[in-house]
Amino acid sequence: MIHSPADLVLTRRGLRVLGRHLPCSIGRGGIRADKREGDGATPVGEHRITGMFYRPDRLPAPQPWAEPILPGDLWSDASGEAAYNSHVRAPYPASHEVLRRADPLYDIVLVTDWNERGAPGAGSAIFLHQRRRAGFPTEGCVAFSRPDLIWLARNIARGARLIVRR
Predict the structure, then answer these.
(1) L,D-TPase catalytic domain location, by residue (predicted)?
(2) Residues paired with 143 in a beta bridge
(3) pLDDT under 70 in the chain at which residues?
(4) Does the annotation count 129 as an active-site position?
(5) Where are the beta strands (DSSP E) in the chain?
(6) Ramachandran bin of 128, using left for φ above 0, alpha for ψ from -120 to 50, beta for the remaining angles
(7) 53 - beta bridge partners?
(8) Would strands 142-144 and 127-130 be described as parallel, antiparallel, or unpaired?
């Protein structure tokens, strides 16, 4: 496979993009081709960056196409619901993640197209976001230091490919 310099390629050294390697954390369940909701795995595949959210009360928009995270913004992780694996607003009684968190993990969120059709049980909320600390795994996302995430968010295009291989 031929990669574009604008591709985000997950390697053992981190994420390779635009001539840089960004150290990152992946899911506690490792990298899996058979991703399921709640398994903590980062899914194998070629995923497109389809959106970006940011906290306007904490930092400026990294790109003109970034959307602000507002109070009441949620992400549905309720398998079987019509809104599964999509942005929803409170009140939303089904299972969900809060996008406007007290901690900084979701101050910038790059959304991938993983399971964008919402196939029940196939996993949700595969994002690129800030990590807790080096070496701390995610629930399936790819996570970076704050400076690296800000650099990435400022320098990638919507539609960029995130390539995850075993």
Answers:
(1) 1-165
(2) 25, 129
(3) 1-3
(4) yes
(5) 8-11, 14-17, 20-22, 24-25, 31-32, 42-43, 45-54, 67-68, 73-76, 87-89, 96-98, 108-112, 127-130, 142-144, 161-164
(6) beta
(7) 67, 109
(8) parallel
User: Sign of torsion, CA 49 68 145 121?
Assistant: negative
Name the pairing type of β-strands 73-76 and 87-89. antiparallel
The neighbouring-strand residues paired with 75 are: 87, 97
Considering 24, 47, 96, 129, which one is annotated as catalytic? 129
Question: Which residues are registered as beta bridge partners of 68?
Answer: 54
The active-site residue out of 24, 47, 96, 141 is: 141
Q: By three-state DSSP, how is residue 156 classified?
A: coil
pLDDT of residue 2: 57
Report the pLDDT value the prediction gives residue 6, as an integer from 0 to 100: 85
pLDDT digits (tens, 9 = 90+) for 87-118: 999 999 999 999 999 999 999 999 999 999 99
Specify whether 21 is catalytic: no
* DSSP secondary structure code for residue 138 in this structure: B
How far is C-alpha 21 from the geometric centre of its chain's CA atoms?
18
Q: Say if residues 41 and 124 touch (Cβ distance below 8 Å).
A: no
